[in-house]
Every structure is written in C-alpha cells, then in structure tokens.
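**Backbone shape codes:**
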Amino acid sequence: DISRKKSIQAVEEALALDEKVLLLTQKDTQIENPAPGDIYKTGTVAVIKQVIKLPNKLVRIQVEGLNKAHAVEITDSGNCLMAAADIEEMFINQPDEVTNRAIILGMRELIRQYGAANSRSSKEMLKYWLELDDARELLLKICADFPMDYTDRQALLEMDDIIEIYEYIAGMFIELTNAYKIKEELAIKVKEKVDKNQKEYIIREQLNVLNQELGEDQYSESEELDKQIEELDASDDIKAKLHKEVKRLKSLSKGSSEVNVERTYIENCLALPWNKKSQDNNDIINARTVLDADHYGMKDVKDRIIEYLAVRNITSVSDAPILCLVGPPGTGKT
C-alpha cells in the first residue's frame, strides 16, 4: 500500500511506459518525505501487475520482482523520484558441487536446532527447507520467507557471493537459537520459583485449616508475644506500643519480607532490661585498666573517654548523654 503523492505519481508514470518500477528501501522509516540520500541504492526491478485504489487516498499495487538492480543515480523530478539503474541478471552466484553440499549440510543442522529451540516456528516451512538440495534455492527461500528485520533483508540483497550470504544467514540462525534457548531457561527458572511460592502458600493454608479443625489455632505466635509483653517490667506506654507492633505483625502476609524485620524488632524490645539499673563505678583508674585490657592502642580515644568520665565525676552531672564513636568496622568501637 502506498499513500505518498510521489509514490503514486511514480506508479502512474510507470504504467504509461513499460509498467516497470525500481523498488528501493527507505533507510529511516520515520522520514515522511525521503530525499535520494535517504534511500538504499540496491533494490529490485519489478513489473506492476495490478493497481487497486482504496479509501483514504491509499493505492494498493501488486508487483512481480524481476531482477536485482543497483541505482547509479537517483534524482527528484518534482513529481516523483527517478533512477538510472544497473540490472543484475542473477542474484546469488551458483556454487560448485562441494560448496553446495557443505552449505546444505550446515543449513540443515542450523534449521533443526532453530526448530527445536523455537516451538512456535512454522514446522511446514522448516520441513520444506530441509528437503531442498540446491544451496542457492535454499538461501533464496530463506531470504524471502524467514521473518527478519528489513535491515537484514537489505544487507542480504546487497550481497552477491553465496558464501557471504550463507555466513550472514547462519549467524542469524545461531543468534536466534541461542536467544530462544536462554528464553526457555529463564522461563523454566521463573516457573520453578512461582511453583515453589504457590506450593508454600498452599501448604500454609492447609496447615491453618488443619489447626482450626483440631482446635489448635487459639495459641499463636502473636498471643505468645502479647503474653511476654504483659510480663515485662515496663511502663504502660511501652507495653501499648509493643502490643501495637504485635498487631501489625499479625496483619502482615506470611510471605512478606517485613515479617522478619517486625519480629526481630519485637524480640529485641522484649530482650531489653526494662527498669533495671546498675551501680555506676566512678573509679577512673579502673576504667583505664578495663580499656587497656580490652583494646590495644587507640591512646587518643582512651584519653578522651577518661577525660569525659573525669569531668562527669567532678561536675556530678545526673543525666547520661550517649557517646558516639566513629570509625571503620573492626576497630573496637563496640
């Protein structure tokens, strides 16, 4: 289907002469009105067989390819693009018998591998290719029938040597086969992961149902945590906060990543020595002895800690600010 005025005018002028047109591919499909420099030089000479005018100013033409051709010069006449072209009588040279056999054997192996990797490929088309014994005919059929990007078709059209064309097509088959194999492996891994998650979910639900049937659902993890909170020697505000966190833990999905975080937070809070106090030891000499016994070196840090303790003893400050020790891991901050 064509809709550009220049393309329609080119068809009309061809019909008025010998009904032949030179079909060239546009390099960038996004360009609305391509100039001669925006078109590939190698294309196909075709004869117009039928022209059908469609709604919305569309024209559908049916053509039959005749020969490969190379545009020597492309000019813009204003109404349409005109080209002087050199016509090639044969596309893809005929190989010798040994080369023909080698290409057939190589392509058959690649076609089988591709068909095994891509379950959605056309089995009839692959079977037809496997039955061909002529390398030139096989490569021509693949160029025409195999789904590929227009840039790949253009690259193949610009080639003449059968070995070069075979190498290009073989590379495409190998790349696609590997891509489909990787896709299948990833799909299997994803399926296994999903199946595992579904299995765990079903087992949990079955366990919940069994516990309810056996009457064992009354005693749960949340109730154990609530019991431990009530036994804490802590203020009512702290207990209320912890009960709220337990309620949140109970509402979380068992598969959620926040479950372990929430549970760890509650357990750490339960392990704290609430309302338990120890007698401070204000002996500076003992503090220095302990620091020297537990940590080697770090004289400046130890001196600063002793200085801080000495000032507290002299001023008798009642509050207890927190010291922040900064340094890389493994230097003895803890």
The chain has a mean pLDDT of 84. The CA atoms of residues 212 and 218 lie 8 Å apart.
